[in-house]
Amino acid sequence: MIGELTNKYLRMDRLPHMWCPGCGHGIALGALLRAFDRVKIDKDKTVILSGIGCASRAVGYLDFSTVHTTHGRALAFATGLRLLRDDVKVIVIMGDGDALAIGGNHFIHACRRNIDITAIVLNNQIYGMTGGQSSPTTPQSRLSTTTPYGNFARAFDFCNLAIGAGATYVARATAYHASLMTELYANAIKHHGFSFVETFTQCPVNYGRRNKFPDPASMLQYMKDISVPFKVAQNMGSDELQGKIVIGELIKEKEDVELNEVVRERIMKFRGGAQ
Amino acid sequence: MIGELTNKYLRMDRLPHMWCPGCGHGIALGALLRAFDRVKIDKDKTVILSGIGCASRAVGYLDFSTVHTTHGRALAFATGLRLLRDDVKVIVIMGDGDALAIGGNHFIHACRRNIDITAIVLNNQIYGMTGGQSSPTTPQSRLSTTTPYGNFARAFDFCNLAIGAGATYVARATAYHASLMTELYANAIKHHGFSFVETFTQCPVNYGRRNKFPDPASMLQYMKDISVPFKVAQNMGSDELQGKIVIGELIKEKEDVELNEVVRERIMKFRGGAQ
Amino acid sequence: MSQSSHLEPVVNRAFCKGCGICIEFCPANILEFDEQRKCRVTDPEKCIKCYQCEMRCPDFAIELVEKGEKK
Amino acid sequence: MSQSSHLEPVVNRAFCKGCGICIEFCPANILEFDEQRKCRVTDPEKCIKCYQCEMRCPDFAIELVEKGEKK
Amino acid sequence: MTKELRFAGTGGQGLILAAIIYAEAALYDGHRVLQSQSYGPESRGGASKADCIVSDTEIDYPKVYLADFLLAMSQKAFDKYKADVKKGSVVLFDSTYVEIPEKDENIIYFSAPISKTVRDKIGKELASNIAALGTISVIYPLVGEEILLKAILHRVPKATTELNKSAFNVGKKLGKEILESQGSIEFVF
Amino acid sequence: MTKELRFAGTGGQGLILAAIIYAEAALYDGHRVLQSQSYGPESRGGASKADCIVSDTEIDYPKVYLADFLLAMSQKAFDKYKADVKKGSVVLFDSTYVEIPEKDENIIYFSAPISKTVRDKIGKELASNIAALGTISVIYPLVGEEILLKAILHRVPKATTELNKSAFNVGKKLGKEILESQGSIEFVF
Amino acid sequence: MSAKLVQGNEAVVYGAFNAGLKFFAGYPITPSTEIAEMCSRDLPKVGGAFIQMEDEISSIAACIGASLAGFRSMSATSGPGFSLMQENIGYAIMAEVPIVIVDVQRMGPSTGIATAPSQSDYMQVRWGTHGDHPMVSFAPFSVEECFTEAIRAFYWSEKISSVVVLLLDEVVAHMREGIDIDNVENILEVPDRGPFSEEKEGFRPYKVDRDKGAKLPPLGTGYRFNVTGLVHDEMGFPVEDPEKTGDLIRRLHNKIDAVEDEMASYDERYTEDADVIVISYGSVARSSLRAVRELRKNNVKVGFFRPITVWPFPSKRVRELSKKVKNIVVAEMSMGQMVHEVERSVGDSCQITLLQGIKGELITPDAIHNTVSEVISK
Amino acid sequence: MSAKLVQGNEAVVYGAFNAGLKFFAGYPITPSTEIAEMCSRDLPKVGGAFIQMEDEISSIAACIGASLAGFRSMSATSGPGFSLMQENIGYAIMAEVPIVIVDVQRMGPSTGIATAPSQSDYMQVRWGTHGDHPMVSFAPFSVEECFTEAIRAFYWSEKISSVVVLLLDEVVAHMREGIDIDNVENILEVPDRGPFSEEKEGFRPYKVDRDKGAKLPPLGTGYRFNVTGLVHDEMGFPVEDPEKTGDLIRRLHNKIDAVEDEMASYDERYTEDADVIVISYGSVARSSLRAVRELRKNNVKVGFFRPITVWPFPSKRVRELSKKVKNIVVAEMSMGQMVHEVERSVGDSCQITLLQGIKGELITPDAIHNTVSEVISK
Ligand SMILES: Cc1ncc(C[n+]2csc(CCOP(=O)(O)OP(=O)(O)O)c2C)c(N)n1
Ligand SMILES: Cc1ncc(C[n+]2csc(CCOP(=O)(O)OP(=O)(O)O)c2C)c(N)n1
Ligand code: SF4
Ligand code: SF4
Ligand code: SF4
Ligand code: SF4
Ligand code: SF4
Ligand code: SF4
Ligand SMILES: [Mg+2]
Ligand SMILES: [Mg+2]
């Protein structure tokens, strides 16, 4: 199965990839390939963009039209790319630092605009690429190279932020939940409007090592342990949910107007008028 | 009353201010002076910052230590200014474009960090200073110089975004509700941690004129008509709340840890160790 | 707001920009434009000291002051 | 996931980085490290075809393939 | 022939539009034109100006050096720009807002209560800028009134056509009254 | 005296730390030193190197030109850097990962199964870099073993002192075995 | 149609439309805002899209995205926004994505005076982004030139597959002149991208001659390659090989050098017999022209030179001219920026005198007149 | 203590601490990250604060804020982040807020090669932000100089009340050398701000001599004035008056010009009898030094000149030297940036030959050796 998919969707000549042993980004990439297969993606009519970071290096392996943009700006590039191109699917892959530290503004504005883009954030709660500095999702008291005494800043709840910003599809999975991930990716790609899937991944080298996870598997195990399906979470109090990750589809709206549609409508109006 | 306050808190030699006739920013400034009086603010121990825009010109009249920063960056300046200075109150005044368009990222990160700063956003739903372009809070279908056919983008709900980003004090008033505004400003200043008061103000020149408001008073009247107190809103469905503004204190948390405290704690630990 | 009867609304014409907000919302209906489109108090005695004008004037141009203390 | 009995897990040693994830989570306990810390299948017959290894391998290095089709 | 015209007043009076219309009319009339203005926050409260250069040769320097004609619709603006006029230039005040200055040998002063008249006759003081154009068409006929009216109607919203026509006429009338009372002058443009 | 040393292998092997420790030891020993390395994503999978220049005069150019000593702990690294050594230089392989190359007249080859020995004896292959330093202290005694051990203990976490001491000893032992089997060489530094 | 009264900023948009503009992303800032406003009104009419982004960083990012999607894209800004765009300007240069950026210069540094004219972004245009990169920039001095230079900007951005900065100043941007848009002569025809090889599989957009720009087919049309700001190979994938690195950086420069002469444009008058030449660009050149004409009336032998292609600076011609005159006067609304290029071009061939303009006002013909007179009398 | 093995980046932090650093705000980026990491560990120990901000824009904004609050502040970054900082760099210059920014140069443009050395931000340091502004920048070439130049950066940023950029390259930043931090000689004592007038009411921070920097007391201590990026009066409030505008812009430049000689620093060796001089800075200067020494061994009369104060460029000295030699070789890890300053300084006094380094590698002594030999044999 995966062999077929990698042959189909990846640039085999560029593998093995550059990610460290046990890096969760690879698991997410695998799930994305399965989702591609499920939605029967058209390689020639899909553009995949990313920012800068380990997560963003994914585009270097995908046999698509790919754009490796600047740090934090992938969604802004994607917005411009998508606006006049109703014929392409646009998928954006980012890291947590990429999407929420330097790229936070573009993220909330993409949510607001409800433009038809699928954003996948591989949240390893750390800056992997630059060697393990804290990110806006690093949990409190965790160690990183810039929080040597434990992180004292509060972390974002990525999905809550997206919801607050008005996103119409918000979902979450972890690297442990590889098949849920596949399903969410597929649904996100099918969603009409802006869709966002947060994916917890493990960075054994720059997060795990410093935070007493003996190996990548133990990080997956931890994700499994703290995950709660959305349906279950709805019947839990906020105290109970402390320290937990809620997984599944958190928001899935249908009615809202997608940005491109309005743009197209406007153009059509004038064109109609002109011709 | 207001004469005393202006004498005390404003630079009288710089008045009358540059705002247009009927501009709501002036009403908000008045409410702020009343709040200052209520909390007995110490002029010498308070720093007021702003970004760029009509709203941000407020600092040019306040007889305090004032910093008129760059467009969108006031909260980032304020964060640096506040971190080692527990002795000062820090207040930041911004416009909607300032705080949420170009400054959106700093806004959500300030919410996340819960640093002890009071942010007041004068939301006139338009870029006043540059002559009436749409802002991220311009309601759908409204006219502006860059939405000549009606705004097609969705607008942020500023307070929802702040809540999604983790803010611990979130409140809203309108220029019509001048005494509520005073109360919220006072409470926000007293709040320990990051506090945010969204204030709807009218821009008769660049918003009102284009959107069929005959005069400033009619804009205030409209604000009055669409406002719903938070308590009342809690018993209303989302359909009923469509097109309404919920006013009052939306979030007022007490328990959360404020950023400066942790920084100070850390320093004290080391100082204790060193001396 | 205290309803002290020794107060009266006074307009600072140098500050008033003639926006009309106070005029519109004065419950006693005692404010109007003068020829130069500045606010004028027609009948100070009828003022109910509600402070609405003072609170909503964007220009700090109308204020309730001790009678005779007109600035 | 279909439990077809004609499938067996096969490791692509060129891709395997020896992270140990598949080994830890294989319910049949038939995966282990070889001398060079790459994954090795000890007893393909015991495989229950749950695909957990394949889905969680970050390196596309382990796969269930038609028996004998070993790459 | 090169004439430099300045329209000065405060922010809300629509003088930039007046200058644009004037320039456009001059352009229709076969002249070369260059129109410019001062922008900015200061233009809200303080004095603001809009300039228009009309010429029959290439216009190089794009600013008004010394005006041949000045329209002053606010006291501040007049005080600020009164020095920047040529000898022999024409200054038209809106006496609603500008006090009539002492006589100056070198300058031809005309004055009329433009804003007040518009307010009284049309109801909307907003149209005073258009009225001023009407007055100018009479007292300083560099560009003819018909072509000026054409330019006005091209630039203002359709819905306000009638309003603006009336304002223009009000202005023309004021211009004629001026000439009647102050005597007309022959300009060679 | 100027000697250029290079420690080469793959990302996870701790060769930068080894080079830092070596440089620090040489510094303690009164030499001037300059330590540098190649960083970057490529250092994850591919060949990475850490350099150390030891000298008794000012070190100007901060890179290793041609190495006097090369430690090669991976095949890729050896293949990449084998050409950048001087005539008469010393190369130490970790035979766990590097195939012993054909003899070369101009180069002195030493080899020992460093990683494998550490894995077997200490359990944690991670400490192979420290073991390598032990081996070097014996076969290429530019910096004495005591001072090297001091530098090691200064740089590694306190909790791992014993582990690293053992690794260092394992390495020294390997060094001695090499010299016994291959015969020792007099170096004049 | 006959002549219309058009603003400099508006003429830029007319020019852009003539050149096939289909996408504008921007963020309002004085004195460039009219460009965005006009695009918001008129782009939908030609099937294009306007979007107001959250800031200038995302504005240029969106333009790059739209250009990669196959559309002619433009943004417009002023100093503060231009500073924010710098990182992504470097990206467009590195990835070789054609876009046009209008920088309407205002008084700086920082917020400065939003409404005051200036020419103090000249050096920033060239050097504002990090790393080695070339830069192309055109500076009009009239409304008609705003139109023609906008077209030229698109023409060259497509030809070299890179960024072109259209450099205005507040005076040029806001003044209105009469122009008959439909009858401007010698309008360049902006080339379509491509043609691209029929063979989509394995297409290499960066496999081009050593002095040519990349050939980027619209993404999502079957050509599958990578676009990146990293040093990359012919298919756009990251490499770190020193030779390939050097080749890429050199090609990015070569492709400009190769067309420098063709791209060069300047306006030279009265230089034949001149003893002094006044060099200036943009609105200041109009003051210079007035001053030069007046001086000529007094029989002063003064010449006029105005770079229109301001980057690359027309060094060769300036050097030639410097050998024929005793003095060059450079007039700029700045502390002196273009004068650095004049100095580099001239060497010790003649004296150079700088007339600075730092008061937030257009330099007057008088000031230039006086400077020339002083220089001559010395 | 005796000598310790210290990395260039670490030495910068040691220097900053010596100079009284109390605040660091930054965003990680290779090859500068160690500076942030060390500050996060050690600043709390001296009562200071470290904060990792959401990006580079907010990092420098926070530094400006902290400096206004009265604390010595620093940020560190590399090209992409430095590009993003440009707008606020202009703010600090305009509002005259002392801060130090470390730019560790890596291969550009754009993301380039994150780990490869370069010197291609040299011109950006000077011209990266919009508007007229001066710039001061120091470039160390050894670990010890990273320490001493960091101190000098703080010294001068306080003296001129403005931004100083400490310009490293990846090689200098990442190499380790032995240095005895406690016994470095001739360390500058960084002055405290002030003294400020006792009279707080009506205090005017920008009322200073025509060639002096502002005097900014910590905000929130009773001195109530305004700080802005707009053109402002002596109390910091916006003005648009042309004369005041000109005076402000001129003073911002004058205050640097006034101390240029005192601030100038360069390393000159073997120039007495030289026929050729090699000019380079940072890590390339170490290659040059090796090459020059080797050439001298062969009796080639070659000199060595290394600007340490790279902005303002030591033009006067270079001009003097150019009159004594036939050739100047400029070696830079770029397409040639500092060479522009050399050209402006030298005029036609001697030949200039540029050795470019654009492969993401330190230029080797061999390359310099060869270039000098060629130049001489011509
Ligand atoms: C403007 C800019 N600032 C900083 C960097 C350095 N940088 C590269 S990747 C990265 C963060 C990566 O973290 P994340 O986005 O979480 O991705 P991960 O590597 O963890 O997958 C940073 C800070 C950069 N490339 N550009
Ligand atoms: C970097 C930058 N971009 C753009 C601008 C131009 N600008 C000044 S104020 C402003 C928006 C003002 O709108 P808002 O923040 O809502 O304040 P208001 O004027 O409505 O009170 C803009 C876009 C600027 N000064 N700096
Ligand atoms: S550093 Fe972390 S995130 Fe990056 S490849 Fe390695 S494990 Fe993955
Ligand atoms: S433009 Fe609008 S926001 Fe600005 S001062 Fe005028 S009314 Fe107020
Ligand atoms: S206080 Fe109330 S009643 Fe009196 S004038 Fe004001 S608004 Fe009217
Ligand atoms: S509200 Fe104030 S400014 Fe407006 S009319 Fe009344 S007094 Fe005048
Ligand atoms: S498919 Fe399941 S049982 Fe078989 S090897 Fe993989 S994890 Fe083990
Ligand atoms: S999960 Fe993949 S990479 Fe990891 S040990 Fe198993 S086969 Fe190897
Ligand atoms: Mg991450
Ligand atoms: Mg606003």
- CATH names the topology of chain C as Alpha-Beta Plaits
Would you tell me the structural class of the helices and strands of chain E?
Answer: alpha/beta
Task: Please name the CATH architecture of chain E.
Answer: 3-Layer(aba) Sandwich
Order of helices and strands of chain E: EHEHEEHEEHHHH
Question: What topology emerges from the helices and strands here?
Answer:
The complex is a heterooctamer, with 2 copies of chain A (275 residues), 2 copies of chain C (71 residues), 2 copies of chain E (189 residues) and 2 copies of chain G (378 residues).
Chain C: E1 7-11, H1 21-25, E2 31-33, E3 39-41, H2 52-56, E4 62-66
Chain E: E1 2-9, H1 15-28, E2 32-37, H2 42-45, E3 48-55, E4 67-72, H3 75-81, E5 85-94, E6 108-112, H4 114-122, H5 128-139, H6 145-155, H7 161-182
Helix pairs in contact in E: 1-5, 1-6, 4-5, 4-7, 5-6, 5-7
Chain G: E1 4-7, H1 8-18, E2 21-26, H2 33-42, E3 49-52, H3 56-68, E4 72-77, H4 79-95, E5 99-107, E6 113-117, H5 122-127, E7 136-138, H6 143-160, E8 163-169, H7 170-174, E9 176-179, E10 226-228, H8 242-257, H9 260-263, E11 266-269, E12 276-279, H10 282-297, E13 302-307, E14 309-311, H11 315-324, E15 327-332, H12 338-346, E16 351-356, H13 365-377
Parallel strand pairs in G: 2-3, 2-4, 4-5, 5-8, 7-8, 12-13, 12-15, 15-16
Antiparallel strand pairs in G: 1-9, 5-6, 7-14, 11-13
One iron/sulfur cluster is lined by residues 19-20, 23, 25, 54, 124, 128-129, 203-206 of chain A.
Describe the structure in brief.
Chain A has 275 residues and is α/β, with parallel strands linked by helices. Chain A has helices at residues 2-9, 24-39, 74-83, 96-102, 104-113, 158-164, 178-190, 204-208, 216-226, 230-233, 238-241, 259-274, and strands at residues 46-50, 65-68, 89-95, 118-123, 126-127, 133-134, 169-174, 195-200, 227-229, 245-252.
